[in-house]
Write a structure and sequence with these properties.
The structure is a single chain. This protein has 2 domains: 2-75, Orthogonal Bundle (434 Repressor (Amino-terminal Domain)), CATH 1.10.260.40; 98-128. The protein has 7 helices and no strands. The protein has helices at 2-14, 19-26, 30-37, 45-58, 62-71, 87-97, 101-128. Helix 1 packs antiparallel against helix 5 (62-71), helix 2 crosses helix 4 and helix 4 crosses helix 5. The chain is elongated, with a radius of gyration of 18 Å.
Length: 129
């Protein structure tokens, strides 16, 4: 529960989503959201989905950010200071910094090459079976 609450807080902070707005978008009370964020109450699957939908309506991309945080939660400390950012977040930051179209195209080619290598490895593992 603590990981969900921590990732929810981080996503709200990163995307400047106010608790009042998120509670309204999710159809829950501000108090209920506060209890979820502080780890004082369990969040049902239904409310959890409503929160994620509400986040994404208020700030597109925030749901994906939340999921990245949650999937890499072992890379984040409990006190809010990052130990190491998840790889996809680092990649997103680097791609955002690229201003030149040539650099952007080079980055896309590098990612494609990496995917191709991964696919060749996966294909060879399937053949070994």
């Amino acid at each position: 529960m603590g990981q969900i609450a921590n990732c929810l807080k981080r996503a709200q902070d990163e995307y400047s989503i106010r608790g009042t707005d998120l509670a309204a978008a999710a159809g829950i009370s501000r108090n209920h959201l506060s209890e979820i964020r502080n780890g004082k109450t369990w969040v049902s699957e239904e409310i959890f989905c409503q929160l994620l939908d509400g986040m994404d309506k208020l700030a597109p991309g925030s749901r994906q950010y939340f999921c990245l945080l949650l999937s890499n939660s072992d890379s984040w400390s409990d006190n809010g200071r990052s130990k190491k950012k998840p790889p996809l977040l680092r990649l997103e930051e680097v791609l955002t910094e690229l201003q030149d179209e040539k650099d952007q195209n080079q980055a896309i080619l590098l990612v494609a090459q990496h995917i191709r290598k991964s696919q060749h490895l996966a294909d060879s593992l399937i053949l070994v079976r």
